[in-house]
Amino acid sequence: MPVVHRYDQPERFVAGTVGPPGQRTFFLQARSGNRITSISLEKQQVAVLAERVDGLLDDLLRAEGGAGPVPAVAPVTMEDSSPLEQPIEEEFRAGTMTLAWDGETERVVIEVFPIEESESIVEDLIEDETPEPDELFVVSLTPAAARAFTKRAQAVVAAGRPPCQFCGNPLDPAGHLCPRANGFRRR
Length: 187
Prior knowledge:
By secondary structure, the protein is α+β, with helices and mostly antiparallel strands. The protein is 25% helix and 32% strand. The strands form 2 sheets. The protein has a 7-stranded mixed β-sheet with strand order 1-7-6-5-4-3-2. Strands 8-9 form a two-stranded antiparallel sheet. It is globular. The chain has 3 helices and 9 strands.
């Protein structure tokens, strides 16, 4: 039976980073009272999760004709620009994530499963069994909290290194070898 880190309407659920641009580690972090859970993940996973949550909320808003519990934008009172809670202790590295709308409770539900090692996947496929994860991270958010999460997550992803104006690759503080300049270093 897996260890389930469940947060129903957490006091705080955010995406954040540790480290300088170009070397950042991304985290999802939930807090309720003194309990904090931090899950590490890739920048692309944060971007896709924010995009999908926003898309789900937009679809619900359209379906309800703007009369339901889903706000069009993140409420100003729910904006969170504070750093991640300390200490940051990674529970696991995120692999598969699922997103759902619970119509009964009117909540967005995000499930994060740990990344699976390639050897165990091959063994499980040979045994023809679906593996049960060791841990699971489940967060249930109000639509307003979900909007606030997406706004912050998009800002965190965008706060990285600026892109090169010629090739679009990220620029390091010392410049980079631009493929469009035939290997010459641009500053």
